[in-house]
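Retry 2 of 3 after timeout on previous attempt. Resubmitting structure tokens to design endpoint.
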């Protein structure tokens, strides 16, 4: 009986179709199972989907890398702007000190003193 139970199981190439509701297995007819194109179509579709997914993944990876590169560039530019602002403030302060120093020298020197031209002509 065990040998017949294995035969009763569905074979990969045949489908068991029962003609009656009773358990008499002699009335079953075995028809060859039509070869399904579905796995081949699914494989072809899956290959196409895999190829599309691969292209999308490559595009996403490229865009992510580009965004990261732009972020780093922006950070570098921002740091450079901050450094230039600091240098600008430093130079402005130095210019004010130098300007005040020059004014003090000019006021202390007789060469830069204003003269009354009318009094000299008389």
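Retry 2 succeeded. Sequence:
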């Amino acid at each position: 009986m065990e040998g017949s139970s294995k035969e009763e199981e569905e074979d990969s190439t045949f489908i068991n179709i029962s003609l009656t509701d009773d358990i008499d297995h002699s009335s079953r007819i075995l028809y060859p199972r039509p070869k399904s194109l579905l796995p081949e179509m699914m494989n072809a579709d899956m290959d196409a989907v895999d190829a599309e997914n691969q292209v999308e993944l490559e595009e996403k990876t490229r865009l992510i890398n580009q965004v990261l590169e732009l972020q780093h560039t922006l950070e570098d530019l921002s740091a450079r702007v901050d450094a230039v602002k600091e240098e600008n403030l430093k130079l402005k302060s130095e210019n004010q000190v130098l300007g005040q120093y020059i004014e003090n020298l000019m006021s202390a020197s007789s060469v830069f003193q204003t003269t009354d031209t009318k009094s000299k002509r008389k």
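Attempt log closed. Residues 47 and 53 are 10 Å apart (CA to CA).
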